[in-house]
Amino acid sequence: MFALVDCNNFYASCERVFRPNLNSKPVVVLSNNDGCVIARSNEAKKFIPMGAPAFKFKEIFQKEQIHVFSSNYALYGDMSSRVMNLLSEFTPDVEVYSIDEAFLKFHGFDLFNIQDLGNQMYKRISRGTGIPISIGFAPTKALSKVSNRIAKKYPEQTKGVYVIDSEEKRIKALKWLKIEDVWGIGRRHAKRLKALNIKSAYEFTLLSDEWVRKNMSVVGLRLKHDLEGKPTLGMETPGNKKMIATTRTFEGMLSDFDDIKERVSSFAVSCSEKLRRQKSHCNMLMVFLHTNWYRKDLQQYGKNIIIQTEYPTNSSIDLTRYVTKALKKIYKEGYQYKKAGVIVMGLTPENQKQLSLFNSENPKHQPLMKVVDKLNRSYGNNKIKFASQSLGRQWKMKQEKLSPRYTTNLNEIITVNV
DNA sequence: TCTGGGGTCCTAGGGCGA
DNA sequence: TCTGTCGCCCTAGGACCC
């Protein structure tokens, strides 16, 4: 048996845990730079579509008295790990699928009452964190996604827990689920399938294996089998990342080379820190920048470039040097740039380093990086900067509605007046 | 004024050596 | 030396996820 546990409207729920006066009130959380809406409480869903650009909905926020928050990843990350820790009390097989979701595998639980188990999990998370969750049990991962959807859609009847444990329930659930809502079927495939009059998940499972294999690749076929109740998708153990990216939309627009260079250098430093954290090197990096695609009235330009490093590295000094070189090649004067990013690729473990015949890393870099990381850990991020990042200026994200880091910073801990 | 950020997997097709 | 074929590797692009 698999279970999919999903936190309801996760970011909005995290904000509400520490502001109980907002329970049953509409709440939304915005993306970086307060750009668009990335989470909505149930009450907000009827007013605000997912991904809505915040500036276009300002009036509706006011009119409907919607409580708006900037995203507070320190808080959400911490709340997420609390939820995951509590879930691991129920089974050792936990696959953290995303910040707000986890697959659990219950092997050897045949004699347990799964419904009771689900109810216990629901209570445990609710008491331990205050986050509302939905739990779907089923014999395969894809079906547990379906089951979870039912639990979420009908909270009154299911009390947040639903179990698919018979052929009858499986078919009923698949007939209920619209094809575009099936996990693993995105917009493109949904459109193609609907054109063939396939409207539900059940109708999808009636297609022939050959057709699905040919038109949706082995990925689609695996999904079909999983929905048929044949376990095909297994639990996955997280390995190291295969690429690491730091990309940002600028608050305004930038046109000066040095300004952009400062930003991109910071992205490189951030990527190199992430590399060191997972003990990897990269041997390739991509830098991109582009203008604001939404501003049809302005001249558009965008380009990316991939650079091979001379030797595998995770040194902030090396990577800033490379991105500066790369940026010089793609930067063109006279444009208003809106977004840029650095992506490092070709990742290998630190201890399996391929040496270069002619070039090698400056032996002072590694110990220096260790010290920098240590200082930044002790005194807060970005206390130690590299010259290319500019010492005087502080690039700040727009975060006008940021809540306190209640659970990760002592100075911002919640106060209770009695 | 103002529209997020970060990932994974798979396939087709070309280059290339055996 | 030329040509065909096979299999491996790489890359770009498509599709998906949160």
Query: How many strands appear in the DSSP assignment?
Result: 13
Tell me the major beta sheet.
5 strands, mixed
Q: Give the strand order of the largest sheet, numbering strands 1, 2, ... along the chain.
A: 5-6-1-7-8
Beginning-to-end CA distance, first to last residue: 47 Å
Helix content range of the residues, please? 25-40%
The top level CATH class name of the largest domain = Alpha Beta
Unreliable segments (pLDDT under 50, ≥5 consecutive)? none
Quickly count the domains: 3
Described by the principal axes of the CA atoms, the overall outline is: globular
Mean pLDDT: 90
Per CATH, which architecture of the largest domain? 2-Layer Sandwich
Topology order in helix (H) and strand (E) letters: EHEEHHEHEEHEHHEHHHHEHEEHEEH
CATH homologous superfamily classification of the largest domain: Reverse transcriptase/Diguanylate cyclase domain
User: How many helix segments?
Assistant: 14
Can you give a write-up of this model?
It is a single chain. This protein has 418 residues and is of the alpha+beta class. The chain has 3 domains: 1-138 and 149-159 and 407-418, Alpha-Beta Plaits; 166-238, Orthogonal Bundle (DNA polymerase, domain 1); 244-379, Dna Ligase, domain 1 (2-Layer Sandwich), CATH 3.30.1490. It contains 14 helices and 13 strands. It has helices at 10-17, 42-45, 58-63, 73-87, 114-129, 141-153, 155-158, 167-176, 187-195, 201-205, 209-227, 257-277, 316-330, 365-379; strands spanning 2-7, 27-30, 37-40, 67-70, 94-98, 101-105, 133-138, 161-163, 244-254, 280-291, 302-313, 337-345, 348-349. The protein has a 5-stranded mixed β-sheet with strand order 5-6-1-7-8. Strand 5 and strand 6 (101-105) form a beta hairpin. Helix 4 (73-87) runs antiparallel to helix 5 and helix 12 (257-277) runs antiparallel to helix 13. The protein is globular. The mean pLDDT is 90. It binds a DNA duplex (18 and 18 nucleotides) through helix 9, helix 11, strand 9 and strand 12.
